[in-house]
Write a structure and sequence with these properties.
homodimer, about 260 residues, alpha/beta, five-stranded parallel β-sheet, five-stranded mixed β-sheet
Chain lengths: ~260, ~260
Amino acid sequence: MAKITVAGMGPGGEKQMTGEVLQALEAADILVGYQTYLDLLSERWQEKPRLSTGMTREEERCRLCFREAAEGKQVVLLCSGDAGVYGMASLLLSLADEYQTEKEKIEIEILPGVTAATSGAALLGAPINHDFCCISLSDRLTPWDRIEKRLLLAAEADLVIVLYNPASKARADYLQRACDLLLTRLEKERACGLVKNIGRAGTEKKVCTLAELRDMPADMFTTVYIGNSQTRIRRGRLVTPRGYPVEEADKGERP
Amino acid sequence: MAKITVAGMGPGGEKQMTGEVLQALEAADILVGYQTYLDLLSERWQEKPRLSTGMTREEERCRLCFREAAEGKQVVLLCSGDAGVYGMASLLLSLADEYQTEKEKIEIEILPGVTAATSGAALLGAPINHDFCCISLSDRLTPWDRIEKRLLLAAEADLVIVLYNPASKARADYLQRACDLLLTRLEKERACGLVKNIGRAGTEKKVCTLAELRDMPADMFTTVYIGNSQTRIRRGRLVTPRGYPVEEADKGERP
């Protein structure tokens, strides 16, 4: 049976991929993905046939998968990080209805990977060791108002906040705008951090305050962490405790 | 130099571990972890010396690591899922100050893994494909009031909500309590799902409405998904679109 595997490759290097994703690459007749991610694959996969589409052409990329699978090929659609965290799993499943018929059935398999929230966290220490949320600052598919509302509610909930897509060429000041908004609710000294190019050439990391974060350079390959009220910088690492001080728990105090 | 590696093993099976975690296991002189997780390791690691402590004895577990590392051993502290998502990374780093001296320095390395939020999501379809949060229902270290406040704010923010530790023997009705609270804000038909024993023997998954979720059996090995306003059940799979309908984005309407 024809099969499409949507695979999360993790941050980049092969050693951060899971065994089942490597197995899927091995079995694949063709690899489909955004060129930047396909280029991260090591030599041993460079011989595999591959197809790619540009940045905003995700739907076309999914349709390529169905077209190839309809020819009986084993297709692997590669995503950076995890396949289902701002990845292609959802779009592919949404388009499946158009291609699944009584006669032809294409199996769709999703293989998870290490998402940037956790691979970046490991480099910084343990910034997301309690309840946390992931919010993308890209307003390409989500109204900016909704993103702002989420940021404020996440701050009020004292969730650790992980920002994906914090800035791009077209959205150069989005991280600044998000920080300015959060600074209306959170203290300037709130412990924060960011990591660039996780698991790839040119990895950079930085631990800083929220006020400092505002002016940090960021791009599409940067993941940003805003600590909760308990997060501290310890020996240069960002550490969020697993809970709240016992006294507070005993009192059952409202946050 | 003595070294402690805090490693996320993913949901359970070796094929969902990353290559660097397998390398760390290979290099380890001793493995430390909660017994249930050590037992998930395949035959090839069963020869390694190992130490474990019970469920609530995480601090003791970390101290064992420092004691073994002080003897010059390469120690791997195993966590299920990711090392920094309700894992041991934070506690180990918090205790490090007591053991790091001018004379003795212990290197601490954190290796990420595939966390339950994403491995369970892959089994259900693509439930967390937009902004989401992870909230633990365990009130052992966090006051229940704070957990309730988080749930309500997450619902207001229209975040997909992933629940860790939704219930245990001592907290049999916590998932019910959380659902009852969410039902005061969200519609009964909200698309939800849950997965039990991800990547292990006895994997079970279920897609349902929020009203049905309330009465689903859950335990410490269950991960629960509450969709956002756009999440739909498609061919038995839970799918959250990557964004919001274009009309809304065009209007810039407030959610």
